[in-house]
Amino acid sequence: DHFRSEKRFDAVVSMDVLYHVTEDDQWCKSIHALSQVLDDDGVLLFSDELPEESTVLGNYVIKRCRADYKRVLSQHNLIIIYQSRTEFFHQRPGFYVSAAGKCSMAFCGY
Description:
Helix content is about 20%, strand content about 40%. The chain is built from two helices and six strands, in the order βαβββαββ. The chain starts with 8 loop residues before the first strand and ends in an 8-residue tail after the last strand.
């Protein structure tokens, strides 16, 4: 709770973080905390692949599936509105950037 902010933000960015939260309950709490500081019209940007099935890679990475993200994001009135694979300095494999927004946003429906 000592990291709680009373401010709301248009955009909240979580790059290369959420897939390192390996405990499911902590992952859910992390998404909750991010959503709490998001303005009503705000966008949450995060990086993860959103594969069809969740994949555990060692003891420090979980690539959670799209269904898991949709389930947890929906609990906070968020839906996935965008996903794109990017390249880092033109090297592959790159990483994925996703955006989640409030369900009331006009361009939702990804």
